[in-house]
Amino acid sequence: MKDSKVFEYVVVYAPLDKEGNEVTAPKIVKYGQVLSKNEQKAVMTIARLVPEEFAQHPDFVDILIRPF
Asked: HSE (CB half, 13 Å, CA atoms) of 43?
């Protein structure tokens, strides 16, 4: 815990059609904070927290992360 940092994150779902145009406005499907030793481990933890209905379409999901 001594070397851990807090990271804030938001998971955004933005579906696209075949031409690459947005079908609907992007929507935030999850947000919060995680405690992790580095950004790479934080991203792995957050990826497991993405709701299943959105995780089935990884091309339409973005994870935005920043140190707190």
From this structure: 9
Q: Give the number of other CB atoms < 10 A from CB of residue 10.
A: 15
**Segment 30-47, tens digit of pLDDT:** 999 999 999 999 999 999
CB 39 within 8 A of CB 67: yes
- Domain edges within the chain: 5-67
- Adjacency order of strands within the sheet including 61-67: 27-36, 5-13, 61-67
Tell me the C-alpha distance between 9 and 42, whole Å: 9
Instruction: Give me 42's structure tokens.
Output: 């934080």
pTM recorded for the entire structure: 0.81
